[in-house]
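User: ok so my PI wants both of these folded by tonight, can you help

Assistant: No problem, let's get them done. Here's the first:
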Amino acid sequence: MTQTAQKNDTIRVVIVEDYKLTRVGLKSTLNEYEHIDVIGEAEDAYEGIKIIQKEKPNVVLMDLGLPGMNGLEATIKIKEFSPETKVIILTSHERNEEVIAALGAGANAYCLKDITPETLSEVIKNVADGACWVDPGVSSAALNFFPKPENITLIQTQEVKDARAQLTERELEVLRHLVKGKSNTEIAKELIVSVHTAKAHVCSILQKLCVDDRVQAAVKAIKENII
C-alpha cells in the first residue's frame, strides 16, 4: 500500500502525544471508524519519528507541546524524509503565531483538542485525500497570514507594474521570502516544495528582475515596492 490513501483504502495513522490517557483515548476512538487504523503511537517526537520511518503511515496526529523535540520541529523532519506523509497538528494551543508556524513547518491541518471524534475522522479522511484543514477557532490566523489588497500600494510606476507582471504569483511569494533573508532550504519548507524547485524559482526571479544575486533581488523588491 502506498502512503497516499486512496478513496476506499484504510488510512494508516500514527499518534504522537505525550499524555498516555489522551493517546489511549484517541486510539480507541479512531479505531472505531472503518476507514482508520491506528498502527502506532509515541509519547515523544524521537520515538514517533522512528515509528513513522518504519511504518510509513498515511497520516500523523502530532501534538505541539512534546518533551525534547516539539511538534513543529518533528513536523519539519517528517516532511524532509517523507513529504507524502500528512501531518495533522492536534493541540490545545490557539495562539496565532503557533498556527502560522505549524502551517509553515508543513502541517496539512491544524485541529484543536476539543474537536469532536466525528469531525476529526472526517479531517483525517480529507487530509489523507490531499485537502488542508484549519480549525474554525483559529482560522483567522491563517487568513490574516496572506496579504490584503488594501496593504498593496495602489499607485505604482509603470516600471514596477511591469516587474510585477513578469513574476508569477509563486515567484512573488518566493521573493517575499528572499526579502526576509531565507535560504532555498527554508523557502522549500515554507512552500512545501523540493529545494530544487525553490532554487529554480529563485533563478527565474533573478533573471526576470535583471539582477545578479539574491541580495540585489531583495533590495530591488523593497526599493521599487514590487512586493
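One down. Here's the second:
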Amino acid sequence: MVYALKYDWAAAAPKLLAAGLVLALVLSIPVFVGTYVFHDAKRRGMRAGAWTLAAVLAPALAGFIIYLLVRRGYPDLECPGCGGEVAERYVVCPRCGAKLRPACPSCAAPVEPDWKVCPHCAASLDRAGEGVTPPRQRKDKGLGRVLAVVAVVPVLLVAIAVGGYLLQPKSVSASGQELALDEYDRQQPSETVRNAVHKWLDSLELREDRAYALRYDLPGEYVYENKFYYLIYAPAGGGGMSSFTSDSGLLGPTLELGLERTGNSGFLFCVVVKSEQTPALRVTLGGKRVRCEVETVDYNPTTFLIYPDYSQTRREDVEFLPERITVVKMERTGKGSSSFVDQVGVTDEDGLYRLMAAIDGGERQPWESPVYQNMSGLDISGGFEVIVEYKVREEYISHQDMARLRVFRQDGVCWLVDERIRHGDNFRRMDEGFYGLLEGLFQ
C-alpha cells in the first residue's frame, strides 16, 4: 500500500488562501488609516500616536472622521521650481531662489499683485510682479489612497462572500459508525485491508492528545458526488462519541467528530462523506480540539462497502459479492401494466458473479442517447425486476444496501434501468444474451 504525507496541505491550501485573503483585506483598512494619520498628524504638529490609536480603534472609522474634522493646517505649498516646501509668506524659495511673490523693488518688502505703491517706502510697484511664479498647492495623495481602500475593501469582501456562497459545495452529507476493534475485524470484508489497518495502528507513536486517520478518496462521475472515506483512531477517546456533524461554508466543507475523554483505545470510527471538495477533519477530545494526523491511502479502510464494477473484475479478484439476487419474472397485461409470474433467488457465488458481471457490462447510455428523448414512448411492462441485495435484511422491504433494477424489451432491444446510478442517465443497453440468462433461471 502507498501512503502519503501525514498532512494534506494540497487539500487545505485553497481554504488557507481564502482565509488569508479575507484577513489581509480586513486588516488593510486599519493599516492604511493608521499609517496616514500618524504621518499627517506628525507633519501638523499634533500628537501622532494618540490620534493614530483613536483612528484605528474607534468603531466604524469614527476616530478617523473626527481627526479629519479637527486636524490643524500646515504648510502645504510647494515651490514650482524645485518642489520644496515653502510658506505663504516666502518671497523667494530658500532652496532654489525662485521668485514666489511680488516684492518692492526699493525695500524688497512683500506686496500684493494689485498694489500700485509700496506701503512701506512709497516706491512705485509698476514692475514688482515681473518673474513671479506663485507656489503650488500640494495635493494630499495619501488621503485619496486611504479613501479608496475604505471604499473598495468592503465591496471586495461582499464579492468574496457572495462568490464563496455560490461556489461552495452543493451539499455535504456524512455517515459514521463507532466499532470496537474486534467488531471492525468481523465487519471488514477484505483481509488485505484488515491487515493494512492493523499494520498502521502498530506503526503509530500514540499520544493521548492526538487523533489519527486514514482517508481514501473516491472520485464520482460528477464533481458534487465525490466520496471520502475516513478511518479515525483516538487513543484516549474510544467508546465516547458525543457529537458528529458535517457542514459546508465559505472556506469549504468540514467534518467534526466530538469525543469524550474516556481513555479507551479499543475503538475505531468509520466515516463516509459525500462532498464536492475534500472536507477538513476536526476532532475534539473532552471539548478541546486536538491535532489529527491524516494519511491518504489507496484503499478503502472503512467497513462501508464500495461496490466494484464486476465486469472489470476477475472472479478470483472479487473480495465480496451481493448476498442475494432475486429475479422476478413479470408478464405484460397491457401497455404499462404487468402481473407477477414467478421469482428465483440466487445465492451461490458463481451465479451472483455471473449476473453482476453481465449487469455491469451493459452499455451505459449517455444523455445524448435517443432513449432519453423518447421516455414517454417507452413501455417497461413485462420483462424482469432484478433485486440486488448486497446485505440481506429480511425485516425491510427496501433498504440502503438494496437496488431494484428493471429489465424490459422494446423494438427488439433489451434495456436495463440501473437504480444504483442516481443521476437520471441510468439506462443500459444489454446484450441479447442477458435476457436469455434471466429466462434460463426459470427453467
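The longest strand covers residues 324-334. The chain is about 30% helix and 25% strand. Good luck tonight!
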